[in-house]
Design a protein that fits this description.
499 residues; single chain; disordered N terminus; Serine Threonine Protein Phosphatase 5, Tetratricopeptide repeat; mainly alpha; disordered C terminus; 23 helices
């Protein structure tokens, strides 16, 4: 799967090589914000233990070099300063461009600050404002390098990947030594499902500057390839490779929390989310991660409260999905309906700012058994434009919900082609195999999902356990029935008597 040699010190194509080298590598402080990486998912909300008997596996040994701190640890003054940093930059450069509208560099600085604010708040309006600033800069200086690079980041964040690649081509030609361009190219190719090209560009980034942005991307590759221990170690290295404060540090802590959660390390996940909140106070993704932990502990009111905090600080469709799920599970149908209405408003806001979350919204509806045919249509379109493993997993599950088992089976084979070991993906695969009548295969997949994370989803974790019990009982019953129905063995021919 991973092969080849690199001229640099770090090789993202050799799992153990990169693991050893990264642990021994000198740290490079890289404070630039990570380009937005759409998951689509990061994915991402995967809560709950529904079994009182479910135990939390022991957390991995903490790296003594990594200082995690609770949300209360950050002094109020520093927290306020962190939150004001980007808004002050925006205000500063807005004033500058009003006074000096012919200064292209001023417009680029304004665009940079607005793009950062979009990452911090999940507000798509900042992308539109970024575009306006970049247009003004490029009217004055069409070949301004930083403007080209920011254009690529903007189009990538909007999932306009073809346009982003065009701008990155111009940026790389203008400055082939900027590692962030290769990192962004790698992100785009990963979203498109072109993983060899993603590796190639991540490798170039690692060769040029093995810092936070490079380590976090290497972690993402290891996660895709089902190498979670390496992924966790590399994300820890990313955290160590830069300032402990700021949105980029918080982003890394949140993703370390997700990796720990999916591996069943609940206390370690909680600490990572708390550290994210200390790194960047009021961070939406950190609140959502903490909510996921509360849901796993069956503390549903607390989980809902934290998700509401997350919505207030940065609305996102995955947060609405989690709230709809929890309200439905708690029998609060009216509140679930209200969340769906708010999600529709968010969808319109994205559309007005040249962004599209129609498929993500359809996926949320499908989870609730609504508009299934429409969701299947959009899922098929999604894999044509973004043929990554997560898109194929979504198609497989939605096809299953539509009773299209042929499409579900084919899509799931592609989703699992890299060895990705997401508990939710394993559950989806198990349901498909079970419906195809392959009980033994489905049983293995259910058990793999549960063993990875006993509380991987607020509904599906409990369902997986009940299905394991039912399938196991059925297999034993079938085996006993087959034994009882077997015809009596024929009497063997007697040996000839010795004379």
């Amino acid at each position: 799967m991973l092969s080849g040699k690199s001229k640099g010190r770090y090789n993202v194509r050799s799992l153990r090589y990169i693991f050893i080298l990264c642990m021994a590598a000198p740290l490079v402080c890289e404070r630039g914000a990570l380009p937005a990486r759409a998951t689509g998912p990061e994915p991402e909300s995967k809560p709950l233990s529904s079994s009182p008997a479910a135990t939390t596996p022991a957390a991995p040994a903490a790296d003594p070099k990594v200082k995690t701190q609770s949300a209360d640890a950050a002094p109020a003054e520093k927290s306020a300063a962190i939150l004001r940093r980007t808004p002050r930059e925006i205000e500063r450069w807005e004033q500058h461009t009003r006074k000096s509208p012919e200064d292209a560099e001023g417009w680029v600085k304004l665009a940079e600050a607005r793009l950062q604010r979009a990452r911090e708040t999940n507000d798509p309006a900042f992308y539109t404002r970024t575009e306006t600033a970049l247009a003004n800069a490029q009217k004055l200086e069409p070949d301004q390098y930083r403007a080209m690079s920011l254009r690529a980041q903007l189009h990538s964040a909007r999932h306009q990947f073809d346009t982003a690649i065009e701008w990155l081509g111009k940026a790389v030609k203008a400055n082939p030594s900027d590692p962030l361009n290769y990192g962004l190219l790698g992100d785009i190719y990963a979203e498109l499902g072109q993983y060899e090209k993603a590796e190639e560009n991540y490798q170039k980034m690692m060769d040029l500057r093995p810092g936070r942005a490079a380590y976090s991307r290497a972690s993402y590759l290891m996660e895709l390839y089902g190498e979670e221990p390496y992924a966790r170690t590399l994300m820890t290295r990313a955290i160590m490779a830069g300032s402990p404060r700021g949105e980029d540090a918080a982003w890394c802590y949140v993703h370390l929390g997700h990796l720990n959660f999916n591996a069943g390390f609940l206390p370690a996940a909680q600490k990572a989310y708390e550290a994210a909140l200390a790194s960047f106070p009021d961070y939406s993704a950190a609140y959502a991660g903490m909510a996921k932990v509360k849901a796993a502990q069956k503390e549903y009111p607390a989980a809902i409260g934290l998700y509401q905090k997350a919505l207030k600080s940065g609305p996102h469709h995955e947060i609405y999905a989690a709230l709809i799920e929890l309200y439905t599970l708690s029998g609060q149908a009216a509140k679930a309906k209200a969340m769906r209405s708010e999600l529709g408003v968010l969808q319109e806001k994205y559309s007005k700012n040249d962004m599209d979350i129609d498929f993500e919204v359809a996926e949320i509806d499908a989870e609730q058994g609504q508009n299934l045919a429409h969701a299947l249509k959009l899922a098929k379109e999604e894999v044509q434009t973004h043929g990554n493993v997560k898109a194929y997993d979504a198609l497989a599950w939605i096809a299953y919900l539509n009773d299209d088992l042929a499409t579900a089976q084919s899509a799931m084979e592609k989703a699992m082609s890299l060895g990705t070991r997401s508990p939710v993906m394993l559950y989806h695969a198990a349901r498909i195999q079970e419906k195809l009548g392959k009980s033994q295969e489905s049983l293995k997949l259910y058990n793999r999902a549960i063993s990875m994370c006993p509380y991987f989803h607020v509904r599906y974790a409990a369902d997986a356990r009940s299905r394991v019990e039912r399938i196991t009982k059925g297999l034993y019953d079938d085996s006993a029935a087959q034994v009882s129905q077997k015809p009596a063995p024929e009497t063997p021919h007697p040996l000839p008597e010795k004379k």
